[in-house]
């Protein structure tokens, strides 16, 4: 579908027997009608009128429908909306989930990105039909309430014209559109909209909702303005809460899997930027089969590791990462290496072993790069973890690079693919035409009101200058607190390279004490808080960020204690219902009559109950919407939608009587929304004084490896342990509740005394070879020749 044909605004009308959803494009030149049967008690019948109307013709059609239904109350206006999220059925009628309010949060080269401000759940059958239905006692009291627990007004965003579920590089270098985009791992309403999309064989009426974080801000450097967009996309696969979703499942999907993208381009008023850059990094749970039992008596439950000598699920996970990002895959592991009571250290040793086993079967150029760094230990010891993390980020960026693209534009009508990169989206009440793109002068794009000039289309020619190959994957135990610090360090180093690529700065680095570094830290801190709320139930532990600002230590400790308590209460008392709500929303559980209810099942393992003994075809034929099959083999993503025949396509081009204006249909309907989301959102605005006088790099730039391609066959583990780097003291949980003993070592001690591995495991992984390589850094901060030689031959980096 061409850009100028995209339906962005909708009006819902009803008669006693049908709903009529009228959709129109931004320029109000294309009007379409969708008809939904209200006389069906338990089935869903939808008819799409293929006729394209003008505005006058559409209102003439509505007038005719109104006249034909006068005896039963005529045509009534229900609500204005901005897209269909999907349809859902529990044990009674079908419901339609609509976005009824939106707010503008960003603009990526003319493509507007929106967040959901309000959503409504509309019951489809008419009141007369519903009065004859036998409702289950759980229909309203539990299932509908569970669906509402997934609050679409918090951290869900979408775009009509930009494929926000994909990175900038993929959007510009890989052409994909339509149904295939909904099959990606980041579209959270894939299940709710699947059968509807498959029936109509298009995505005209639906929007793809992304869950995570979106923030766009305007900054300046050396008098030049640029726009920074920070996007976090949370995977819908193996999604859930902290203690209920851990590690990796049998299909290679990990818990808390989040892709973070940092887009930077020069902010030129009324113009498409001439260049644009982006960089992607990833976080996700340790890809081993492990779990923790939620306990109301133990704030730190034991870690249960289920060993698999072949590491099948771990292999599947890294195969998927390679499929998504290419080579190399650089793994930054931040968990502890030694504890009085082994918890994290158990996973650390097993994780190292799994990488060694996997690398044995890979050619040298495809081996995983494993970097271990006990952030907790080093943060306590040297108090400057970001300096060391910056060096790791530079190392990773040397291997992966960033995406950099030149853009040229001219006024043009979008091509038939609908993927032309550059379209401004209009406000709901705006229809005047203006060829000038909208550029906000606000510092924070979240405060932009939904007002913008009307449309323009531009044909943009993109010329990639450099592409990112591979990705840095960061993890700690929760992939929240320590991981967010490491991702900020990576983002700061990447920002310097992005600004340099755009020609905005001469030196490709940003100092830690620069105002721009503090602005970026605020953005990553807010992202960390948002992602921590989603997975962990509280804001992130930001001890390192607070120390950088010079915040009073007692205030920081109090804040961390409160967040620890909040996270504990959420995990122990709220997460079970939250997990049930996610499973209902994502389609991992579909209620059925005479089958156990969701809350009667003791594990996600049983959510396929009711499907045993039936084929996939039989199940789909039995219900228009059924359990989500998105958790299939991770390497065989289904891009061909399943077709379900339910209703048909109707061309209802009717004779047009005298014109009917929209204001003539003003009577409100009796179909009040069943569920309405709140308009509240999360806010984490903070300001703290900054600490002066620190740089991410020493004055003399350190030398980095060009590539890690010549690995020693005898030690394919790709494992390096750099004890000189820092580790996460980011979580106050560690300070308050950690009963483990921390081995105190001087900053110059680069031995491996903190690695819990047997002699046999050391022989397997080659870690014993690091014992003699204590000279990691020169005094000026550069890597020593001895260290560089180690990396070139062994390929693994443990710090």
Automatic annotation (TrEMBL):
It catalyses: a 1,2-diacyl-sn-glycero-3-phospho-(1D-myo-inositol-3,5-bisphosphate) + H2O = a 1,2-diacyl-sn-glycero-3-phospho-(1D-myo-inositol-3-phosphate) + phosphate. It is a peripheral membrane protein. Its main location: membrane. Keywords: Hydrolase, Membrane. InterPro entries: Fig4-like, SAC_dom. Residues 416-446 are annotated as: Disordered. Residues 147-537 form the SAC domain. It is found in: Vacuole membrane. It comes from the Eukaryota. GO terms for cellular component: vacuolar membrane. GO terms for molecular function: phosphatidylinositol-3,5-bisphosphate 5-phosphatase activity. Residues 433-446 have a biased composition (Polar residues). One of its GO terms (biological process) is phosphatidylinositol dephosphorylation. Component of the PI(3,5)P2 regulatory complex at least composed of ATG18, SAC/FIG4, FAB1 and VAC14. This is SAC domain-containing protein.
């Amino acid at each position: 579908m061409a850009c100028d044909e995209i339906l962005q605004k909708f009006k819902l009308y009803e008669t006693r027997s049908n709903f009529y959803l009228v959709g129109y494009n931004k320029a109000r030149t294309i009007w379409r009608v969708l008809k939904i049967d209200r006389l069906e008690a338990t089935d869903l019948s939808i008819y799409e009128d293929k006729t394209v109307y003008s505005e006058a013709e559409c209102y003439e059609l509505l007038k005719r429908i109104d006249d034909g239904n006068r005896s039963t109350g005529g045509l009534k206006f229900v609500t204005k909306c901005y897209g269909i999220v999907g349809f859902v059925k529990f044990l009674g009628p079908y419901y339609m989930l609509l976005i009824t309010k939106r707010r503008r949060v960003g603009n990526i080269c003319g493509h507007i990105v929106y967040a959901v401000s309000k959503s409504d759940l509309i019951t489809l059958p008419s009141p007369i039909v519903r009065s004859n239905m036998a409702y289950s006692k759980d229909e309203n009291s539990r299932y509908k309430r569970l669906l509402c627990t997934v609050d679409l007004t918090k951290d869900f965003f979408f775009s009509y014209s930009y494929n926000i579920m994909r990175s900038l590089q993929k959007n510009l270098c890989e052409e994909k559109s339509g149904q295939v985009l909904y099959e990606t791992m980041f579209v959270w309403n894939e299940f709710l909209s699947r059968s509807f999309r498959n029936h109509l064989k298009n995505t005209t009426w639906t929007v793809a909702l992304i869950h995570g974080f979106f923030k766009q801000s305007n900054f300046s450097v050396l008098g030049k303005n640029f726009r920074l967009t920070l996007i976090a996309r949370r995977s819908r696969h193996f999604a859930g809460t902290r203690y209920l979703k851990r590690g990796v499942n049998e299909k290679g999907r990990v818990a808390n899997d989040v892709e973070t993208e940092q887009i930077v381009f020069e902010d030129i008023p009324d113009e498409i930027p001439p260049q644009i850059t982006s960089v992607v990094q990833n976080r996700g749970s340790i890809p081993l089969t492990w779990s923790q039992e939620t306990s109301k008596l133990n704030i730190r439950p034991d870690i249960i590791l289920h060993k698999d000598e072949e590491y099948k699920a771990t292999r599947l996970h890294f195969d998927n990462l390679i499929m998504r990002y290419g080579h190399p895959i650089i793994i930054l592991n931040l968990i502890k290496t030694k504890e009085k009571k082994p918890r994290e250290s158990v996973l650390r040793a097993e994780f190292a072993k799994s990488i060694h086993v996997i690398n044995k079967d890979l050619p040298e150029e495809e081996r995983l790069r494993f970097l271990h760094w006990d952030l907790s230990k080093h943060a306590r010891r040297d108090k400057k973890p970001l300096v060391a993390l910056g060096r790791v980020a530079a190392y990773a960026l040397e291997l992966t690079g960033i995406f950099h693209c030149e853009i040229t534009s001219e006024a043009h009508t979008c091509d038939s693919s609908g993927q032309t990169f550059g379209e401004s989206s209009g406000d709901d009440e705006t229809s005047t035409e203006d060829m000038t793109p909208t550029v906000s002068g606000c510092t924070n794009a979240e405060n932009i009101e939904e007002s913008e000039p009307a449309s323009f289309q531009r044909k943009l020619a993109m010329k990639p200058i450099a592409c990112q190959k591979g990705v840095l994957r960061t993890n700690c135990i929760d992939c929240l607190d320590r991981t967010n610090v490491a991702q900020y360090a990576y983002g700061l180093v990447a920002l310097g390279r992005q600004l340099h690529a755009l020609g905005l700065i001469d030196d490709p680095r940003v100092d830690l004490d620069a105002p721009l570094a503090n602005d970026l830290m605020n953005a990553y801190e807010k992202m960390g808080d948002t992602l921590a709320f989603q997975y962990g139930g509280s804001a992130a532990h930001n001890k390192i960020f607070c120390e950088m600002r010079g915040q009073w230590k007692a205030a920081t400790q109090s804040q961390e204690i409160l967040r620890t308590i909040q996270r504990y209460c959420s995990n122990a008392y709220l997460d079970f219902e939250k997990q049930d709500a996610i499973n209902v929303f994502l389609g991992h559980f579909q209620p059925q009559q005479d089958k156990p209810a969701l809350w009667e099942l003791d594990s996600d393992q049983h959510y396929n109950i009711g499907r045993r003994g039936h084929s996939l075809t039989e199940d789909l034929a039995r219900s228009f919407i059924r359990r989500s099959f998105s958790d299939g083999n991770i390497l065989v993503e289904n891009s061909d939608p399943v077709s379900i025949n339910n209703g048909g396509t109707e061309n209802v081009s009717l004779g047009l009587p005298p014109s009917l204006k929209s204001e003539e249909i003003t009577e409100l309907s009796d179909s009040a929304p069943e569920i309405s989301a709140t308009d509240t959102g999360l806010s984490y605005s903070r300001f703290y004084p900054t600490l002066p006088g620190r740089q991410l790099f020493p004055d003399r730039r350190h030398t980095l490896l060009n590539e890690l391609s010549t690995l020693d066959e005898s030690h394919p583990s790709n494992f390096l342990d750099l004890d000189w780097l820092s580790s996460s003291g980011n979580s106050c949980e560690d300070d308050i509740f950690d009963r483990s003993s921390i081995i105190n070592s001087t900053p110059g001690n680069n031995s491996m005394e903190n690695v819990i591995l047997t002699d046999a495991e050391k022989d397997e992984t080659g870690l014993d070879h690091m014992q003699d390589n204590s000279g990691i850094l020169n005094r000026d901060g550069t890597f020593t020749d001895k260290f560089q030689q180690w990396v070139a031959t062994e390929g693994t980096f443990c710090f």
